[in-house]
Amino acid sequence: MSKYLVIILAISALIVNPVCSISCQDAITKILPCEFYLLGIGSPSAPCCQAVAQLSQLASSKPELKSLCVCLKQAAQTFHVIADKAKQLPGLCHVTTPVPIDPNINCDL
Questions:
Q1: What topology is assigned to 23-108 in CATH?
Q2: CA proximity to 83, closest of 60, 103, 107, 67
Q3: pTM for the complete prediction?
Q4: DSSP state for residue 74 in the 8-state scheme
Q5: 67-84 confidence digits (pLDDT tens)
Q6: Three-class SS string for 18-85?
């Protein structure tokens, strides 16, 4: 795990929204296999696509979805995730996510 991901996991643990049954740290840990792809290196791996599929099962209520959205958005901005790569990920993995993987999403909608 890169030192930057360790830092964001630590920060994320501090900003977890108590409304969500899944912590921000757990959500970020789930999508770690996608790190290189989201930073512009290579294609999504099988473990990455499995992680994206699991991500779709992490939250079901509106408050949980919003919390997950905020978490992923903050992580994407912190890691300088390439927005187009993030948006393409669910399609490339042939999964539907309850929260768009997009660093520019409005989580209040």
A1: Hydrophobic Seed Protein (1.10.110)
A2: 103
A3: 0.74
A4: H
A5: 888 988 888 888 889 999
A6: CCCCCCHHHHHHHCHHHHHHHCCCCCCCHHHHHHHHHHCCCCCCHHHHHHHHHHHHHHHHHHCCCHHH
